[in-house]
Amino acid sequence: MNEYFSEKAKKHVVKVSQGSGVLIQPKTLEFSYVLTAKHVVNEEEFPELQDIEVTDRRGQRIRVLQRILDANSDDDIAILKVEFQAGLELGYFYEDLNIEMGVYIYGYPSNRSLGLGEVDEPSTYRLSLLDFRNNDVLEFRNDSIALHEDVSGYSGSGIFYFNNSIQKVQILGIQNRMAEAESNDGHIRGYSIRKFIALIDSQDLEKLKPPYLSSFSHSESSLFSDLALSMDTSLDIVKRHLKDLLSQHNINNSQIITPEEIIDRFKESLLSHQQLEEDLYQPQMWIWFLEFLSVYLSLNQPDRQQENWEAIFLTSIFQRFRVIYTHKQTNFRRLYREYIAFTDFSSMPTNAKVLIFANGDKPPSPILDERLKEIPRDISIGLDRHQIDTVRNNKKLPNPLIHWPKLNEDCLADKEHEIADINLVEQPDALDQLIECGYGGVLRDE
């Protein structure tokens, strides 16, 4: 088991009365959620909110603010709104489920006794998915050796997927019951996270979106943090310069220029073939976008005297640029085939540029080589006519494909010693010249 992932999962597991639950952060900093099973917090046994005892792994009690149930459903799910818990970073699994996919359950068994000074850590078992009904009701095989009494108290426990491709822990579902005591199959049953999302939507609650989508202020401290530098402080002068630009344009406090607003307005200019909106919730996407935005502002000053300048500014950006983003580790040689070849660019202006925000190996040049557009001859098998036309048209795509991390590497990381020696007293225009020489040919408006 990956200990890094395990620690991340444990951080979000709490005791809920005689069961368990999972902490997760909605799009607010006013409160947090605990996902659990309805029978763990039922109103008959716990008529008052203060009767529901929620404690974290340190033994600290967490105050319950509201209990959310669906009175018209027999689904054994519940959400507790609790006082805000800082540092939550759990996402949810939103991709297609696969039989036999391996996951882990974390919870607090009720029969465990602790020694003096021993920390009450969640216990875990490895599971394999056996069945899923409409992606809602899940059944798992317990791949570990465990008696029924060993897992009593796991109701409301989190079922976690360790996603290696993005190095994240994701909540897949919540366990609501074990196999019967007399059964030998070791099966565990639970509800998919989609059931909880549906309950949130039906009650008009705060969505399970990361709070950092509400403002670029959450991304600013991480600008260019993915660059490999010989000295961590080499680019500080550039970062300060670009942060000052963002401050001058009030980007961090804007209600219009936010990740969430950008997703809502320009989703079709952000998603590639078969991607879902949730793919855009990754923090690195918005760190890269803010880097691009700050450099773009340095090169192209918007007219802030214009009414609704922020909305007009964003519209102009997405007329000039189309974004391709992947949160998965992807070799640059595969970027075209996996994210560009099948994406419909028919509405993109012919003079627009494609910005690629991608993890993984970087290409030799920021502008992708035309030879990378080669695709297998059998790629058309199973495609419909529209998809075949899309692939054919994209082979002739005239728009330049710009690899943003490689552009940063060439313009900043490879010049870190030169940048570190800049003296703005003696060279007041040095940073503007540096950005113009490095980024201007790619990002300056024509």
What's the tally of helices? Answer: 11
Termini distance? 52 Å
Average of per-residue pLDDT values: 89
Q: How helix-rich are the residues, as a percent range?
A: 25-40%
Strand content: 15-25%
Question: How would the global form be characterised?
Answer: globular
* Main beta sheet: 7 strands, antiparallel
Provide the low-confidence segments as ranges. none
As for the number of domains, it is 2
Structural class per helix/strand content? alpha+beta
Task: Give Rg in angstroms.
Answer: 25 Å
Task: For the largest sheet, list the strands in their spatial order.
Answer: 5-4-1-2-3-7-6
How many beta strands in the DSSP annotation? Answer: 17
What's this entry about, in short?
With 446 residues, this protein is of the alpha+beta class. The protein is built from eleven helices and 17 strands.
